[in-house]
TrEMBL record:
The lineage of its organism: Bacteria, Pseudomonadati, Pseudomonadota, Alphaproteobacteria, Acetobacterales. CDD domains: COQ10p_like. Belongs to the ribosome association toxin RatA family. This is Coenzyme Q-binding protein COQ10 START domain-containing protein. GO terms for biological process: cellular respiration. It holds the Pfam family Polyketide_cyc. It comes from Acidomonas methanolica NBRC 104435. GO terms for molecular function: ubiquinone binding. Residues 10-133 form the Coenzyme Q-binding protein COQ10 START domain.
């Protein structure tokens, strides 16, 4: 049951970061573990997508329903695939120095083999994922737009279990 919570202050607007995270179809272009993304349906407030993730010799596809509360929150609800459950939430709060991003993920695979395999690389994988989103923001929007921001933002709080 890997869990990861992280809070970062990032020098982009909540709208920019929301749009970047909500653009699920482009995940294979920049997320190292995402092999394929198919958005099955999308409205202003919700999307349903199939993601194929691969790590090591494992490759799994899962479906999730994503609630979009522009520009403050994205909540991923698992529908079907290799997990017992998957909870993922992004919160975007405006701040004088940019956007305070709260990220949380918690999941468990049905397969004990997959659960054990991901447990070994989970923390590093999540760090790579968060870094990939920050790098993608720089690619899409240029350098952080607000003064006083370090490149990529500043980690304020971070917890894992």
């Amino acid at each position: 049951m890997p869990t990861h919570a992280e809070q970062r202050l990032i020098g982009y607007t909540p709208e920019q970061l929301f749009d970047l995270v909500a653009d699920v179809a482009k995940y294979p272009q920049f997320l190292p573990w995402c092999a394929k993304a198919v958005v099955r349906s999308r409205t202003e407030t919700e999307l349903v997508a199939d993601l194929t993730v691969g790590f090591g010799p494992f490759r799994e596809t899962f479906t999730s329903r994503v609630a979009l509360q522009y520009p403050t929150r994205i909540r991923v609800c698992y529908e079907r695939g290799p997990f017992r459950y998957l909870n993922n939430v992004w919160n975007f709060t405006p701040d004088a120095s940019g956007c305070l991003v709260d990220f949380f993920v918690d999941f468990e695979f049905r397969s004990r083999l997959l659960q054990n395999a991901i447990g070994v690389v989970f923390n590093e994988g999540v760090r790579l994922m968060v870094s990939a989103f920050i790098k993608r923001a720089r690619e899409c929007y240029g350098p952080p737009i607000l003064p006083g921001m370090r490149r990529g933002g500043e980690t304020l709080r971070h917890s894992e279990s």
